[in-house]
Design brief:
Blueprint (H helix, E strand, L loop, with lengths): L13 H15 L1 H19 L17 H8 L1 H4 L5 E7 L8 H15 L18 E6 L2 E6 L9 H13 L13 E7 L13 H17 L4 E5 L1 H10 L1 H23 L2 H24 L11 H25 L4 H28 L7 H32 L3 H12 L3 H6 L5 H22 L19 H12 L5 E8 L8 H15 L4 E5 L1 H11 L14 H9 L12 E8 L4 H17 L6 E6 H36 L2 H25 L8 H27 L4 H28 L7 H32 L7
Antiparallel strand pairs: 1-4, 1-5, 2-3, 6-8, 6-9, 7-8
Keywords: Cell membrane, Membrane, Transmembrane, Transmembrane helix
InterPro entries: MMPL_dom (IPR004869), Mycobact_MmpL (IPR050545), SSD (IPR000731)
Subcellular location: Cell membrane
């Protein structure tokens, strides 16, 4: 009879001696252990009070990517094109050209101007000095402010403002096409000028809400805000909703856990221990002065879910041991000895799933990985050490023991049929069906895209306020909110030379032909207009001159947002139809193709800034890191499993169902229209890390029965009766818990909940069916069955 080498009994190993040593320390000093945990818990609970939602623009972008390095190098010049808010102020009386509205607009402009973090020198609206008009007349070139110093609100002044708006070509960009609203462009600084610390987007969004939106809403004014800072602010505001769903999930899991074990005291101890893990995590974050950004704010629930997954195994084993007559203390010690190694292995696998996210060079994902890894580290102490000691005091109630006795005496017809999967006549067809599903999943995942696939902010539902505000701007204005900026650089004072202008103009013409590019704005378009204007408006002169004095004169009349003071950087802004991955990829490829085709000499064409350029860089990083992350997840977790069971065949049997689940998850994302992005990428790594727990616990239990020289089918059936029930319960319970997120106002939370729910179910089914089928063919011969 052939058995895997790890299934053969022998002398205690070093690991077993270490487990015995830890067991003695814990259970011979239970009061000291509980006092230690109480003291640490009180300290960390106090530290947890200082944890606040936190977000930073720099953490949301891949700072190591060349695009972002280029952006940061010229950040001062590019600020009006990148981290920008558009504040849309709608007139309550229809047309904006009335005295009351323009006075109110000036008040709004002043309120926004003095918000901490606003780049006041680059703020632009109808009332700011940088809102200029110019025109060509028979007397030459004339220019002035859109709202002149002589404005007094009279009908003649209002007519003059209308004419100036048309002269300044602001219709469709700063003034709505229907003249019912105006835009205030608000560039933001990365650091708060008062504190010098990174700008707190939550505080900024709150200030915008209270001092601008709510203040002027009382005057009947409708104000809409579009931009990165507002997205982050709305996500942070939704933290209360996330906390509510966390509470609902905890309540649901508590009820289901009681239904499973029928023992209130063990249920409450288990749930409280899992909540204590979350408190420790938050306390350690507070101790390290870390916050929770909008994406890692879901980590506490994931840590709670991991805790429940492990704690159910503890309760299940305790019930079994006490059902056989052991005292609470004896049962706790046996449970600790039986579950410490597989539990620790499973937690290491969980940690690996999180840590591999560090390969993705985006701050929020790295912070999520670190936060979750800290949570798993804490779980080792609370689940492996504290919970067994607590259970040695509370034990299992008589009703719980009756439930265990009923379960032990149950014939389990379902599990008897499931146990048949270790027979070749069942295992082979099941594996073939799994291969078919794998093939279908591979085919469906071909449609999986990188990045956002919807307009607006995909973090929110279409009916959310932000997306409604964004839709209003797109419907009433000509310019897009998706701006891709190419940086055209020259030696100092060379940007206005004919050679530079000629190359840049060819680039603009090439990019205008790219599908998805609506319009282009740049220094060189403004210069051509100025040359035209200086030559009596004759269209024959609307071209560049080789005379440097003509070119310098044309450049001197261009707004500062189009060129730096040294005339060495000229941003070329592309307004795109959307920020979908395909659109961004076409633009990136077109710019790169132009750069390689033409010899630009001393001139450089650098990518990329603007919100669309930053998103393009993010997509590139995710695309290049996704496969590496998945490879690392599977390789490292496989090594952990191999280290535990010392068998490549067993490792393959445990990991294969997880790979199938991953492929099916990606296929589902493709069918749901979900792209691989910051919000969805961690789900896959988390699903693999958490999912391997099922297989580790189930096979460890099978192994103990194999030590008793049982046949494979009998050992698997006995494992199903004990660990199998807890695996099924855990998978279904966690899936129901995260499925409740479907009702969240945050679309990204609802999407993560659905994906995690399906991963929990698929991993559970894979552990109960596919794993034993593979084991029966790979590890055990006919005589073992």
């Amino acid at each position: 009879m052939t058995m895997p080498p790890h299934a053969l009994p022998g002398s205690p190993s070093v690991t077993e001696r270490i487990v015995t040593f830890i067991e003695r320390i814990l259970f011979h000093n239970r009061p000291v252990v509980l006092f230690f945990f109480l003291l640490v818990s009180l300290l960390l609970a106090y530290c947890a009070l200082s944890v606040r939602p936190d977000a930073s623009f720099s953490r949301m972008i891949p700072t190591g990517h060349p695009f972002i390095a280029n952006y940061l190098k010229f950040e001062d010049v590019l600020r009006p094109h990148s981290n920008v808010l558009r504040v849309v102020v709608e007139s309550p009386k229809g047309d904006i050209l009335n005295k009351e509205f323009l006075e109110t607009l000036r008040e709004v402009n002043d309120k926004v101007f003095y918000l901490p973090g606003v780049d006041r020198g680059n703020l632009k609206s109808l009332w700011t000095p940088n809102a200029m008009w110019s025109e060509v007349t028979t007397e030459g070139l004339r220019a002035g402010r859109v709202i002149p110093d002589t404005y007094d609100g009279s009908p003649d002044s209002l007519a003059q403002v209308r004419q100036n708006i048309q002269r300044a070509n602001m219709i469709g960009s700063f003034v709505a096409n229907d003249f019912k609203s105006v835009v205030i462009r608000v560039p933001l600084l990365e650091n708060d000028p008062d504190s010098g610390k990174p700008l707190d987007y939550g505080a900024f969004a709150n200030a915008m809400e209270q001092q601008v939106r709510e203040h002027f809403a009382d005057q009947g004014l409708s104000i809409r805000v579009i931009g990165f800072a507002q997205i982050i602010g709305d996500l942070l505001d939704a933290a209360s909703d996330i906390a509510l769903f966390f509470a609902v999930t905890v309540g649901l899991i508590t009820l289901l856990l009681y239904f499973y074990c029928r023992c209130w005291r063990s249920t409450l101890v288990t749930v409280l221990t899992c909540l204590l893990t979350v408190i420790w995590l938050l306390g350690l974050l507070g101790l390290g002065h870390f916050g929770l950004d909008p994406y890692s704010i879901l980590v506490p629930f994931l840590i709670f879910a991991i805790g429940i997954s492990h704690a159910v195994q503890n309760i299940n084993f305790m019930m079994s041991e006490m059902g056989h007559g052991a005292t609470a203390l004896e049962a706790s010690r046996r449970t600790f000895r039986a579950l410490f190694i597989p539990g620790s292995t499973a937690l290491i696998a969980d940690a690996v799933g999180f840590i591999t996210l560090l390969v993705i060079d985006i701050g929020v994902i790295k912070q999520l990985a670190i936060t979750a890894s800290i949570g798993v580290f804490v779980s080792v102490f609370t689940k492996m050490f504290l919970l067994p000691v607590l259970m040695s005091y509370v034990g299992i109630s008589p009703r719980g023991l009756r439930q265990q006795e009923k379960r032990a005496n149950h014939s389990w017809p379902v599990f008897r049929r499931v146990a048949a999967v270790v027979e070749p006549k069942v295992a082979v067809p099941l594996i073939l069906v799994s291969l078919v599903l794998l093939g279908l999943g591979y085919q469906a995942r071909q449609d999986l895209k990188i990045g956002d696939l919807d307009k607006g902010a995909p973090e929110f539902r279409p009916e959310a306020r932000y997306n409604q505000d964004n839709a209003y701007l797109l419907d009433h204005y000509s310019t897009s909110t998706d701006v891709y900026v190419v940086m055209f650089t020259t030696p100092p004072e060379q940007c206005a030379r004919f050679a530079a202008a000629d190359i840049a103009t060819q680039l603009e013409y090439a990019l205008q032909e790219v599908e998805g590019v609506e319009s282009v704005q740049s220094l060189y378009r403004a210069m051509r207009y100025n040359i035209l204007a200086l030559n009596e408006g004759n269209p024959k002169w609307a071209e560049f001159s080789r005379d440097k004095y003509v070119m310098n004169n044309a450049r001197s009349r261009v707004a500062s947002e189009f060129v730096d003071p040294n005339c060495s950087v000229a941003p070329i802004s592309l307004y795109l139809t959307d920020h979908k991955a395909e659109t961004l990829t076409r633009v990136v490829d077109a710019v790169e193709a132009f750069r390689q085709k033409y010899d630009t000499g001393d001139f450089e064409i650098l990518q990329a800034a603007g919100n669309a350029g930053i998103e393009a860089a993010t997509n590139i990083v995710i695309k290049h890191s996704e496969k590496l992350m998945l490879v690392l997840v599977f390789v490292i977790i496989s090594l952990v499993v191999w280290w535990e069971f010392k068998s490549l065949k067993v490792t393959f049997a445990l990991m294969a169902p997880l790979y199938l689940s991953t492929v099916l998850c990606e296929a589902l994302m493709a069918k749901m229209g979900l792209g691989v992005k910051i919000a969805t990428l961690p789900v896959i790594a988390l699903g693999v890390g958490i999912g391997v727990d099922y297989g580790i616990y189930l096979y460890s239990r099978m192994e103990s029965f194999l030590h008793q020289r049982m046949k494979l089918r009998a050992a698997f059936f006995e494992a199903l009766k004990s660990t199998g029930t807890s695996v099924a319960f855990t998978g279904i319970t966690l899936a129901l818990g995260v499925a409740a997120w479907a009702f969240s106002a945050l679309k990204f939370q609802a999407d993560m909940g659905l994906l995690l729910a399906l991963l929990f179910i698929w991993n559970m089914v894979g552990a109960l069916l596919l794993m034993p089928a593979l084991l029966s063919l790979l590890v055990f011969n006919k005589s073992n069955r």
